[in-house]
Amino acid sequence: MKKLMTLGLMMIALISMAACTSDDTEDYTYLSVDINPAMEMIINQEQKVVSYTLKNEAAEIVAAGLNLESMNYEEALHLYLNAAVQTGYIDIDRNDNAVAIQAYQGEDETGSQFQLEVQNKLQTYFQENALGAVILYQGEVSESLQALVDDYDISLGYAKLIEAYLGADESNTLEDALALTPKEIIDTLVIEHEASMLSYRNQRQVEAQNVKDEMEEALRSRVEAHQALVDGGSAVQPDTTGVKAAYLNNYEGLKAEFTIRNQERVEYAYACMNGEVAEYLVGTYEYLSSSDILEYTVTHYTFTLNDDDTYEESFEITYSDERGTVILDETGFWEVVSGELVLTSDSEATKTLTIQGSKICFENEDLIILTFKKIASQNS
After folding, report:
1. What is the DSSP string of 111-128?
2. Rounded to two decimals, what is the model's pTM?
3. Domains detected in the chain
4. Which of 96-105, 218-227, 310-319, 371-380 has the highest mean pLDDT?
5. Is the pLDDT of residue 376 over 70?
6. pLDDT, tens digit, for every residue of 286-326?
7. 3-state class of 74 per DSSP?
8. Cβ within 8 Å of residue 138, ≥6 positions away
9. Which parts of the chain fold into alpha helices (H)?
10. Which of 272, 266, 328 is nearest to 303 (CA)?
């Protein structure tokens, strides 16, 4: 997708920036990116990454195998966001990805100009790559940042820099942060970043890379198909009408849903790594949604995968024409073949479903994708 995402987001992506200038040192910029993979970097006057750190497990998965240090910060951001697309943290199939941006460069207009520049780049990126996403300002959705602004009469960018300092070490205090200059805060963050990344590379990166590989493999065909549409000029830009308003009204709630969806995919990746896919899949799956309007109404539709490798498929659907109501109760055997769920009925008909964490999907005869959500494990 323009070399798999030239720049880019919940599903959710938050970007905030802060920069400080000192008479006796070069300018530095603090950049925070939160897609729930959350990371931050510090860049110098030449726009090179001086240091960066990964703020949670999701970011450690996305950035596994990457080394962003000394890169141009835009190139580093491209790599990181591309990896987020490939692992599904930026979802090519959804219209509700989001990015919130915030910039700070002292009390002049530079920060606002930089913020507008980033916003324009993101808008171009989403449009060129046919991704459904909206752009927010972090100050619009972060109550903690706004509280710092209100309590201490500081800018949103400076408030974000202080938050980063407080999060870098549990011994750091707000009083300490307010007593430091922005340069001193950034100098401290560089040291903390280096220590954090050394620990990550020595202790957690190998496992994170394994999870990343599994997540990429699960999405590879979908991402490649989307990229082919983009490259061929036939990809359709998703409709994001109402998405920004929804985030402004319930940002934390939407972010929580996004986090749960991705954590389920991480759990499935671990199941693949540990040879426990069959155990993970056992349970009942209920019809959730379709990729287009169906020609019938679904009263109920479920699959139950049993731990003895048998399954039951049950549905009641109603057509508006002479076909009326159709009821099916079918049994057979299930297995996982090349990462896909294959059902073979007692009449020897087969159906192949895609596994997406706690969801399974199949394409019907009208090329509409039906998605089913796991509602219960066998022992629950």
Report:
1. HHHHHHHHHHHHHHHHHH
2. 0.84
3. 12-206 (no CATH), 278-376 (2.40.128.300)
4. 310-319
5. yes
6. 999 998 999 999 999 999 999 999 999 999 999 999 999 99
7. helix
8. 14, 15, 16, 100, 101, 102, 145, 156, 160
9. 57-62, 73-87, 110-128, 138-141, 143-152, 156-168, 174-179, 182-203, 205-231, 243-273, 277-281
10. 328
